[in-house]
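Good morning C.,

I know you're traveling, so I'll keep this short. The sequence:
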Amino acid sequence: METCAETLEDRKLGRSVTVLFGAQAGKYPYGNSLLVEGAEEALLIDPSLSVIPRQRSLPPVARILNSHSHEDHIAGNYLFLDVPWHLHELDVSNIHSLDNMMAMYGYLGEVNSAFRQVLVDEFHFMPRLDALSFGDGEVFDLGGCRVRVIHTPGHTRGHCAFFIESDDVLFLADIDLSSFGPYYGDAWSSLDEFERTLQRVREIEARWYVTFHHIGVLEGRAAFLERFDRFAAVIRKREERLLAFLNEPRTLDDIVRYRFIYRAEDPVSFADAVERRSMAQHLELLLRDGRVTEVEPGRYVARR
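The tokens, ready to paste straight into the viewer:
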């Protein structure tokens, strides 16, 4: 899964920020990492698999910042055992052990066992009991360059964006503006929180917007809003599809089999778990709003 350095590109945004583009345009399992250099120290945000072949060409890094604890965002952390790792206080415990990581996903049975091995073999998971926590609004001052934490939960409890003030760069992490849309399919995900996060993030103005996957770099608020609004609209489209599907009584198992998040042909081992967690949240919100009713235990239909 590791990549050749010749296939990778870097892009400088201002005097402090360099985007280390991931292989395959940052498509999962790869991603776009951020090197931020101040006058006193440098830090690396979300070391991806594509940082591994770059290791020898990077300047000395004083600390690692992870936007959250998902496997693709910590895949290169193991290269930097001699510097502190920092995660939001609601995600930091996941890096303490493999059991904690797996609890975040909420997978069961064979899917749990298989993915546990993937974390170690393919994403180089390494527990770090002394990982440090940060909170919303905390600032890392690198010397003439400040990195500010913006807590953006929903994807995980501790998911964060980072604003690099000197270069007017907003790193959005897994608010990735992709056509797939927001992901809230883990045990530690929340659709409610993601929607509040989207309201907050939409108001943040920057010159540069950087995503961990797919889009990479956008310049200017107009380009950002165009992508952002399409990304956010996926939530309502899923909801509309679900309401149409519930034109007759259905169970959650029926909803999972129908596939609202992934395509039927997508070879994703954990697809059923993600569908169940994601669409159960949609179902709960629609029940709460009175747009769906439970006609008998475990069977739901849309109100006409």
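Safe travels,
E.
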